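Re-running ATP synthase subunit b, chloroplastic to confirm reproducibility after the cluster update. Everything else is unchanged from the original entry.
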Amino acid sequence: MKNVTDSFVSLGHWPSAGSFGFNTDILATNPINLSVVLGVLIFFGKGVLNDLLDNRKQRILSTIQNSEELRRGAIEQLERARAHLRKVEMEADEYRMNGYSEIEREKVNLINATSDSLEQLENYKNETLHFEQQRAINQVRQQVFQQALQGALGTLNSCLNSELHFRTISANIGILGSIEEITD
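Result of re-run:
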């Protein structure tokens, strides 16, 4: 280490030589060469390095801006999708409620129509029963009348002899004759 410091100290003591030559002391010339190379690199490479860093900075900022725009777009799409979802849910609820209301209305209409049909069938049944009762009553009356008539004819035929028959006819002719005189 002492040699390194001695070489820096000896820099101030260079004899002014009139000739140009090579310094073969590696420890003395290496830091000088490195400092010259670094100085040249910094002086000339500073602009290139700044350009590279500026380009990188611009790409990073551009990427951040694009990401922000995409995020805002995604948030807007999400809000639109949520609004659309709310709208669709409200429509679905409305359709569901309307469907239930429509089902209830159809149920009531069907019950009313069935009740009306049953009432009409009951009326037809009652009319048919009444008609059949009247027909049965009429048939019974005819049979009773026929039996009574046959019974009366049988009684008359058994009771009437020719003399009684002749007297009944004469009496009827007499009644008809007196009615005829009254009307003249």
